[in-house]
Design a protein that fits this description.
- The chain has about 325 residues and is of the alpha/beta class.
- Helices cover about 40% and strands about 20% of the residues.
- It has twelve helices and eleven strands.
- It has helices at about 1-10, 25-40, 60-65, 75-80, 130-140, 150-160, 170-180, 185-195, 200-210, 230-240, 270-280, 310-325, and strands at about 15-20, 50, 85-90, 105-110, 120-125, 215, 220-225, 245-255, 255-265, 285, 290-295.
- α2 (about 25-40) links the parallel β1 (about 15-20) and β2 (about 50).
- The radius of gyration is 20 Å and the shape is globular.
């Protein structure tokens, strides 16, 4: 990891550097970018943080204010130099939640299963619960002290991406959590945790309560309007908390297509595989064993017929059989 970081510094020298997260950054993506930015600054690299979507969650806006995180404007991102070095953080090339930008995507720091076929010059990748864990390890490998505000942001990122160490957590996450916990400002953590919802979010929760359908432990929810990725994920966690639900599939209308969030608490059902299988041919998806997401392309939604909700349930039912039986994606079931 230390050797990879030194190579990153060599590549970044004398270039504009952008740390690009996925389009709708969550606390893990934002804290990882923030931590990496500080680490690069200490080595003489002034990197900027950028993303193409919007910040709609109140706790993430609070993070940006609390830690004074400054990000690039869309105009600045669109006009960035063609030879700028782009570092993808908490995301990989060709992800449905990553808008391509000018510049050269040469570095990736990510914790999701490796699925991209695109090449990077440098990859720092680990299958851990949070990307913030990898950034914490970078500080350790380089012998750098973690500033309290950076530690606070990283700790919050780990807490949110592992659902308070209850989902997808690894030994590396636990070690990083322990280290950061001793440094972080827990008053700030408390404020962030106590302000995760805004009044407008209740509309999505209301739609979930009204529209939920449960089949054999799978809770399906269609939110018939667009809402941020983070909110869809929150609703998915909310549905999974029901005693009758062990697998949550939540999807919201978006630009003529649909955005999916899937949660699994069944050890034998990998959420990333499930959504990948279910959307194969009409979209894409993937993620972790317990948490995943996907996108159904607007140009393919017509293939669901006159009753899209029933078609989606059937697709996930077929995909579930493949996951349980270890069948290839294109197998007939």
């Amino acid at each position: 990891m230390k050797k990879q970081f030194e190579e990153l510094l060599r590549i970044a020298k004398d270039h504009v550097v952008c740390i690009q997260t996925h389009d709708y950054p969550d606390p893990d993506a934002l804290s990882s970018a923030f931590g990496l930015q500080e680490l690069l600054r200490r080595r003489g690299i002034d990197a900027e943080i950028g993303y193409f979507g919007t910040i709609d969650k109140v706790n993430i806006r609070m993070m940006m204010d609390e830690f004074e995180i400054r990000t690039m404007s869309p105009e600045r991102m669109a006009a960035i130099a063609e030879d700028a070095v782009v570092i993808n953080v908490d995301v990989q090339k060709n992800n449905s939640n990553l808008t391509d930008m000018r510049g050269e995507e040469r570095v990736c720091i990510d914790h999701h299963p490796w699925v991209t076929k695109e090449k990077y010059d440098i990859v720092i990748h680990k299958l851990v619960g949070a990307c913030a864990t990898i950034v914490t390890q970078l500080y350790e490998k380089l012998g750098e002290e973690i500033p309290p505000m950076v530690a606070t942001a990283l700790l919050y990122g780990i807490k949110m991406d592992t659902r308070n160490l209850c989902a997808g957590v690894t030994e590396d996450d636990l070690k990083a959590f322990s280290k950061l916990h001793r440094i972080a400002n827990h008053d700030v953590i408390g404020r962030l945790e106590n302000n995760s919802l805004q009044i407008s979010d209740l509309r999505a929760y209301g739609a979930a309560i009204q529209n939920i359908v449960v089949y054999d432990g799978i809770g399906f929810v269609h939110i018939p309007f667009d809402c941020p990725d983070g909110l869809i994920a929150s609703v998915s966690n909310f549905i999974l908390a029901l005693d009758a639900v062990t697998l949550a599939v939540v999807y919201a209308d978006r630009n003529g297509g649909m955005k999916f969030s899937v949660r699994s608490e069944v050890p034998t059902i990998n959420a990333g595989q499930l959504v990948n299988y279910a959307l194969r041919g009409i979209g894409n998806g993937g993620g972790h064993a317990t948490m995943a997401g996907g996108l159904l392309y607007k140009e393919r939604i017509g293939e669901l017929g006159s009753d899209p909700n029933t078609a989606i349930r059937m697709r996930f039912g077929d995909a579930l059989m493949k996951v349980r039986n270890g069948l290839p994606v294109n197998a007939e079931v």
